[in-house]
Design goal:
mainly alpha, 15 helices, 0% strand, globular
Amino acid sequence: MTPDEYCQDKTNKSGSSFYYSFLYLQPEPRRAITAIYAFCREVDDVVDECSDPSLARVKLGWWRNEIGNLYKQKPEHPVTKALAPHIEPLKLEQENFLAIIDGMEMDLDQSRYLDWPGLKKYCWHVASAVGLLSARVFGLNNPETLKYAEKLGLALQMTNIIRDIGDDARRGRIYLPIEDLQAFDVKAADILNSNYNDNFKKLMAFEANRARQLYHEAFALLPEEDRRAQRPGIMMAAIYHALLKEIEHDEWNILDQRISLTPIRKFFIAWKVWISGGKKFIRDMRNATP
């Protein structure tokens, strides 16, 4: 199995919605973004699958060292070998890979966040840093596109947090800020024990509006000249935004089930964005008033 095949296999097994935004890329950028996603899966699996935090730290330390090897042109792992040809041509920055590892390590250090600034920092590390790498793969002429990519990463991660609140609770993690739970009089025990009530629904509506505001802010930052190149990211945003609407339609019934879109629906959303360049979706996001 070649390094690229390893990364493709890793991506396919994840079942992620990201797959649908990769389909329309040319072979070279598709290999690059698949390798980046495979790296994210590798370090995320360290935290999710390692029951011993000290062992997880050792493994994340290995990955830090391996990223150093990558930038010394001495990669050892199939993922870093797959990344190697793309580092210089795409100007992929080492600090963004290390920031992603930092974000994974945050999951070992804490399972709760006091306020939005604290959660935002976590989201930046695990999602915005990925967005910065991805934006360079997709192609950009205007550096302002990187600001869009950072903000979009926050929006996507907030949508993930809302979708996965039940799964995360079963792992002992509640990412929603403590100050938000207190403001809506939702107890951690309610989430951990899958107890639905009106206060929980109001809390989730608040968090969804925060995510929508982030989508709005992100697309207000996207320069017109880079819109077509950034279509894969717009596809992801359209899919995740549709997921957010689906969760709301199901009245936030997310504590004991994981709501998702069907593969055919994801494919159709991605196809519409690719064909249209995402014009309507971007216009809707810019005009939205959460």
